[in-house]
Design goal:
The chain is mainly alpha-helical.
């Protein structure tokens, strides 16, 4: 938090001051406590989720980008300001975890095959490019569909002080998708690659021994609810984490820091990004739904 505050202070002297024209200062104790709790929760998710610095950097890109995207698209904040904000947020979370936690074997090119499955696929540049573009396309389709559907009217009703709605009406699908390439890469790094590289664990061995003829009702229910492979469980948990982090980070920051935003408006904008995260996870599950990958 100290690193983030220091970097934002420095950045404000070199061109990110336009954020101050649309954000509001919060002085109430509960508002300040809410923002501090949000940051602490984000770091706690990374620590207790056993993420390394790269995992948390990717999660930060994906969960912080919707708030800054809103400011750039509808509040005339410059794109350079948005990217500066993302870089600052990423650095302020990446550095502490890099210093205090070792990198995951998934992110080590020399990690032994006994720790990482499907290494040849993980290191394949074409796979990385294709999955990044696929995730970007999902984000692009969700945003583009919302721009040409429910979102403009919703923003007018719940966001007082919008400066420009033309970005929604003139949006081009290809350009919108291209704008999410960085997010697509972050999504495949945070969701697809860790799931692809996960090796079977004790839970997998236990589920393999499941016998529906002798199992109790409780065992049968548990098998149907959570009897997935290690790879599928990794993808499900990380997708849920991404959806929750995106909703929390976007909703709370939007409501507490942008002047004139109603609670319902912040919740609706956040829900769109949470839904996009779930769709990306679902698409990755579909991509990996072949023998020897996610089952």
């Amino acid at each position: 938090m100290v690193v983030s505050s220091a970097l934002y202070s420095v950045a404000s002297q070199y061109g990110t001051g336009d954020l101050a024209t649309v954000t509001q200062r919060r002085d109430e104790w509960w508002e300040i406590a809410g923002l501090l709790t949000l940051k602490a929760t984000e770091l706690g998710i990374g620590w207790w989720g056993e993420y390394d610095g790269w995992d948390l950097a990717c999660l930060t890109v994906l969960s912080h980008m919707p708030y800054l995207y809103l400011l750039t698209t509808f509040y005339t904040v410059r794109p350079t300001t948005m990217w500066a904000g993302i870089v600052i947020d990423v650095v302020s979370t990446y550095l502490p975890f890099t210093l205090f936690r070792d990198s995951s074997p998934i992110h080590q090119s020399d990690a032994p095959k006994s720790l990482v499955a499907n290494k040849s696929i993980l290191n394949d540049l074409s796979v990385q490019i294709c999955t990044s573009v696929l995730a970007a396309a999902v984000y692009g389709l969700v945003v583009y569909g919302s721009f040409h559907g429910w979102l403009p009217a919703f923003l007018i009703v719940h966001f007082e002080g919008l400066r420009d709605l033309s970005g929604a009406y003139t949006a081009d699908l290809h350009l919108v998708t291209a704008g999410f390439i960085v997010s697509g890469y972050a999504a495949q790094s945070f969701l697809f690659m860790p799931a692809l590289g996960a090796r079977p664990d004790a839970h997998d061995l236990k589920m393999a021994e499941f016998d529906p003829e002798t199992a109790t009702l409780g065992q049968t229910v548990w098998y149907n609810v959570w009897g997935y492979s290690k790879r599928s469980r990794t993808l499900i948990k990380r997708t849920a984490t991404l959806a929750i982090a995106s909703a929390m980070q976007t909703g709370i920051r939007t409501y507490l820091t942008i002047e004139g935003v109603e609670l319902a408006g912040a919740a609706g904008w956040a829900a769109m990004w949470a839904a996009a995260a779930v769709l990306v996870g679902g698409v990755f599950w579909w991509v990996g739904d072949v023998d020897g990958v996610f089952n």
